[in-house]
Amino acid sequence: MSTPLNTTIDTKTLRAVIDGDVLVYRCGFAADAQARGDFLDHNPDASAEEVAEHLEEYDYLRYALANVKGVIQDIQEIFNRNVVLYLTGQGNFREHMATILPYKGNRDTAHRPKYYKEIKAYMIDVWNAVVVEGREADDALSCDLWQDREGTVLVTIDKDLDNTPGWHYNWVKKELYYVDEATADRNFWLQVLTGDRTDNIQGIPGIGPAKAAKIMADASDWFEYAAAALTAYEKAFGDKAESYLYENASLLWMQREEGVNFDDQPYKFEEHPEELTDE
Hints:
Order of helices and strands: EEHHHEHEHEEEHHHHH
Number of helices: 10
Radius of gyration: 21 Å
Structural class: alpha/beta
Strand order of the largest sheet: 1-7-6-5-2-3-4
Largest sheet: 7 strands, mixed
Distance between the termini: 26 Å
């Protein structure tokens, strides 16, 4: 289960691994909003065009970098000061796996904070951020946490990473909690049912969190979760059920070891007929 913060835990013993991708956007957009607010405070009647022109010309990089520095220093105050940041670089194996819908094909790649590149450069140059190539920063974060579940805390606001066991910290809500392996596996299979709109992963149409929880109500381990998911997919997709489930699960799975994907998990229905096909 997910366990909330236990005040007896010495958080200084936890090494923080930080989702740098989230920081880039949250801190960058916060700087954009701050600069916009400052301008409107002094020019309350400015038109949208005048605001846009001001933001284009005005150099407020210091706001963005101060935001990033502030968040990281806050995290260092709570946990071990030896933090590690991960950023997503070039290439992602999931892009070649998606056939139902383009992976992250619903995202507006132009919707970025003004200082997107500068913030990433700052994280790399000043905070020694690790740039992850060929997969996502989320995969690297998940692997790092999996390797040391009791001594590491994963810092993000992305609930997808609750699919990996260990300590988690939501730096916006200031929430520290522990996800055990059984809960992490259940979180994963629930997401296989619901999909992930943010990443353009369909799941089963019409299945939201409440319906997914109902489908999984009687399941209590990996094979029972998989069996319940397969049954739901069969009702929705017929003879395409297994291929659709496999694709969605492969896209959603966060690596726990580098290069070890959903393919390598004990899901293959033909290998476990008694666990995965019995009603």
